[in-house]
Each structure stands twice: as structure tokens, then as C-alpha cells.
Specification:
It is a single chain. By secondary structure, the chain is of the alpha/beta class. Helix content is 37%, strand content 19%. It contains 13 helices and 15 strands. The strands form 4 sheets. An 8-stranded mixed sheet has the order 7-6-15-13-14-12-10-11. The longest helix has 31 residues. The termini are far apart.
Length: 381
């Protein structure tokens, strides 16, 4: 190699080292001087705070792990870096990140991989619970967006068919459980009526989808539909949970929507917290990224809702977060609605609560992916 070429090669290496050190210094300095964040709206989770340095942690080696987690959570401009990485991956030809497919029409679709063993275990707990009751038990089973919008997936996408899962669940449920398959209602809503059934950037269905499914279930169960004087409200710039997994500047936000019944009155008791509210919406969440938590203020172990409905039946709802946007409609259809989320209630027998609360009907509201992955149905026992 000529002397001139050697000098040019050496200069290039020096420049690269300087750039690397400068970037490292910039982010280290930025992380050191920026104020620690306690919560990430992008990831919707609590962030690790600065670890306390003790002799025990130093010699045990735990301090290294704590510092690594802290630096990962608090690194300067973390959200922007995540978005930049996603954009680079996407424009290099990748269509999949963190379990999410970048799909047509701006949809982010969460991959579904069936876990038949876990599904069967969960259904066995549900069946065992149902056998203890002598009241009507209904099960609204909602497919996820990837099922209804499978035609939007990229060509290389690999995912299991949720319609097969729904058919399997239907065949294994106890005879005294009436399954309501929400797929046909959602398909009609989106593909025939032209109304968006799922958010593009979030894993939940829209309030319009929740209302349509609630109407269809009420009608199939012998009740009148949601014919109250509802006002629809919309809130722009909603980036949901799937965007948090695959954030990118090119993804357009959703418009978040919710219905309000202008003629209804409610008393909402959060039983474990022993607190009350007189609205089914916590509108403070509408100012945050996590707008979906405006329904009931999020997820809680037990809620009791009293309303001015003419129907004096008591309904118990066992649910995941999909139900949160449907519960306002149910509260207008039943004078008393109890809500239980098994993810947060690990201390009481649900069948005993059915007797204690003098429940007239049980309604389970779950999405397919929840039945596929959740580990909390054991608490039904």
C-alpha cells in the first residue's frame, strides 16, 4: 500500500473513532444532565429509577444489572432513537418488528401464534366455573384486528388463523355457555357499512365496534339494543399500543372516539380501592397517549356500576380490556353491572361472589389473543 493510501486509511479510522466517541459522549452527557423520567408514555410503563449504591449490591453483582436497566430506560432521546431505528428497518425492507407487521392502509397488525394447550387450559377453567352456576352464561369472543384485516398483511407475513381458534373454542365450551362470535358483526360493520372496527395503531377495537357487538349480543339475548341518546366524541392524535411496539414517524395517528349517554346517571364504585365516580369516562386520559384508559379509568380488580336503567337485572362481566369500551352500553342496559378483571383479583371465589351479589346473568368478554396467552383464568377456581 502506498504511503498516501496508508495516511488516507489512517485518517478515516481516526475520523470514525472521533465520531463514535463524540456520539457516546453526547448521549452520556445528555442522559446525565436530563431529568429522569418516571413513566414512559411511548411504552406505557414505569421506568427504572437511579439505583441505590450499596456495598451489598456492589459485591453481589446486582448493581451492574440495575445500572444497565437504568441506562436503558433513561438514555437521552430514547423515544426518538426507537422511532429512528424502526424507520431504518422499514425502509431497508423489513415489514415486521416486535411482533407487529407493517401492513397496508397504515395498519399495524399484531402477529398471532396459536397456543392450543394454553387455550384448552383456560377453557377448562371457564367450564369448571360455569358448571357451578345455574344462571345464563354468555361469552362474547372478539377476533383481533389481524383476523378481520388479514388481507392487509404483507406478503411474507406468517400468522395463525383466529377463525380456526374460535371454532375450536366453540367446540370445547360447556353446554351451558352461549358463545357469541363477534366476527360476523365486525365484518359487516367494516366491510359493508364502511365503519372502522379496529384502530390502526392500537390492539383494541373502536367504540363503534364495541357498540355494534353489544347491540348484536343484546338482540340475540332478548334485550333491546343501545337506543339511548348517545353523543359521539372524537379526539385526534391517538397512537396506541402497537405503535409503542413499532414506533415510526411515517405512521399516521388514529382518531380516538367514545360515546356518551346524555340522559343517563351512574354511580361507579371501585371496590378494592373503596372509591367512587359518577362518570364512566376518566377524561384526564384523553390528554395522554393512553387514551383508551379513559374508559373506566383503565383496568381494576372489581367495579360496581349502578345506573338508571329500567332493566333491574344484575349482570356480572368477566373481562379483558376490550370490554372497557363496551361496558358503558351494558351499564345503560342493566341497572347494576359488576365488573371483574381476573388479572388483578387473586383473592376471592368468583362463583361465591355471583351468589353474594345475587347475579342474574354472567357475561364474559374476551378477545382471542387474550384467551390464547393469558394465565389468570386459574383464579376463576
Amino acid at each position: 500500500m502506498k504511503l498516501k493510501d496508508k495516511r488516507r486509511s489512517r485518517a478515516s479510522c481516526i475520523i470514525l473513532i472521533i465520531i463514535f466517541v463524540a456520539v457516546l459522549f453526547f448521549f452520556s452527557l445528555g442522559t446525565f444532565f436530563s431529568e429522569d423520567r418516571s413513566f414512559s408514555e411511548m411504552e406505557n410503563r414505569t421506568l427504572t429509577q437511579k439505583p441505590e449504591i450499596t456495598t451489598k449490591e456492589v459485591f453481589s453483582g446486582d448493581l451492574d444489572d440495575d445500572v444497565e436497566t437504568y441506562m436503558s430506560d433513561q438514555i437521552f432521546l430514547k423515544d426518538a432513537l426507537m422511532s429512528l431505528k424502526t424507520c431504518c428497518d422499514y425502509f431497508s425492507g423489513k415489514t415486521y418488528q416486535n411482533g407487529v407487521y407493517f401492513s397496508s392502509d397504515g395498519y399495524l397488525l399484531q402477529r398471532y401464534t396459536e397456543d392450543t394447550d394454553n387455550i384448552d387450559t383456560n377453557i377448562s377453567y371457564i367450564n369448571s366455573f360455569a358448571q357451578k352456576l345455574e344462571i345464563p352464561i354468555d361469552f362474547i369472543l372478539a377476533p383481533n384486528s389481524i383476523c378481520l384485516n388479514a388481507d392487509k398483511l404483507p406478503l411474507a407475513a406468517s400468522t395463525d388463523n383466529q377463525l380456526d381458534t374460535i371454532s375450536h373454542i366453540d367446540s370445547t365450551l360447556a353446554d351451558n355457555i352461549t358463545l357469541f362470535n363477534a366476527y360476523e358483526t365486525l365484518d359487516d360493520l367494516q366491510n359493508n357499512q364502511g365503519i372502522q372496527a379496529y384502530y390502526r395503531t392500537d390492539h383494541h377495537w373502536t367504540a363503534s365496534a364495541a357498540r355494534a357487538v353489544c347491540d348484536a349480543w343484546l338482540s340475540s339475548s332478548g334485550y333491546s339494543g343501545t337506543d339511548s341518546d348517545y353523543v359521539y366524541n372524537s379526539v385526534p392524535d391517538f397512537y396506541g399500543t402497537l405503535y409503542s411496539k413499532a414506533p415510526a414517524s411515517f405512521v399516521e395517528p388514529d382518531t380516538f372516539g367514545y360515546y356518551e349517554n346524555t340522559s343517563a346517571s351512574y354511580e361507579v364504585k371501585y371496590i378494592s380501592e373503596n372509591s367512587y365516580s359518577y362518570s364512566l369516562m376518566d377524561k384526564s386520559y384523553l390528554e395522554t397517549k393512553d387514551k383508551y384508559s379513559a374508559f373506566l379509568g383503565g383496568n381494576f380488580a372489581q367495579i360496581r356500576i349502578n345506573s338508571n336503567s329500567d332493566n333491574d337485572e344484575k349482570l356480572l362481566v368477566l373481562k379483558d380490556s376490550y370490554a372497557n369500551s363496551m361496558i358503558p352500553f351494558l351499564a345503560d342496559s342493566f341497572s347494576q353491572v359488576y365488573v371483574i378483571d381476573l388479572r388483578y383479583m387473586h383473592f376471592e371465589s368468583v362463583s361465591e361472589l355471583v351468589e353474594e351479589y345475587d347475579i342474574d346473568r354472567v357475561l364474559m368478554i374476551y378477545n382471542v389473543d387474550f384467551i390464547n396467552e393469558d394465565q389468570n383464568f386459574v383464579w376463576l377456581e
